[in-house]
Amino acid sequence: MKSESILSVKDLSVSFHMYEKGLEQYDLKVISNMTLDVRPGEIVAIAGSSGSGKSLLAHAVMGLLPDNASVSGEISYKGKVLSQKDKEALRGKEFALVPQSVSFLDPLMKVEAQVRGPKPDKAKIEAQRKIFKRFQLDEKTEKLYPFQLSGGMARRVLVSTAVLSGAEVIIADEPTPGLDLAMAMEALKVFRELADEGKAVILITHDIDLAFHIADRIAVFYAGTTVEMADAKDFLKGEKALRHPYSKALWRALPQNGFEPIPGFQPYAKYLPKGCLFSPRCPYKTKECEEGIPAMSKVRGGYVRCIHAD
Length: 310
What we know:
Number of helices: 9
Shape: globular
């Protein structure tokens, strides 16, 4: 029997209040009706091209959106809908983020203080040294400042911080860029171990091939919304096991599957099409597709946002 979701995102929409030339104002909708959930003991990997809303989702969950952001929908943790104050209270305790940018490291603090946290006990120090050794970080790294780290070293330090946080939900936003294949696999193996210990892990990645083999489920994002959620094994089985036209196109675009490019481009948030956001590029488009963003529906054991999926 599968456990209940520990973190649930339902119909999340995010807009930014923007200014154009002069004092003309408008709202730029960057996330539309996004849906996602993750359970204790699993990794949910998020796949999608740049600009699909992956990092914005992470920041929305962590309560890190800027003041000009307007949010609707629900983000729930252990069944409770979270307010901004709740997110701030959970951040760094029950929620941990491995940010995409290494600039999140405090430039004025040595690495050891940032990884261990305030007043670390002997066990925490030993745990930090153990994970550093696993990530091939010399013990001298503890005494360095962020500017003294290479990009790959900084990435490993950030992953180490999340590992040692003890958080129940870990969001890893592109944790492998700058790492060689062996080290990237080691980092993903660590996330797999955390999930096997009962943690819930959301893995945002462009390394889709790696995600297929480490994750339990895959969420496919497109133009700020979730278009499919399916078991990772469906992506390993092949195109016919998938449900959404974009997921199928993404699969065909992988080098081992023909490296077939997808015609067209993902729309800019200011110029989203009416109805299904993928419809301008979809070979199955009908007039119905332009009537509104389809709701998520259950198809063959997964969830898909497409009226033509079967």
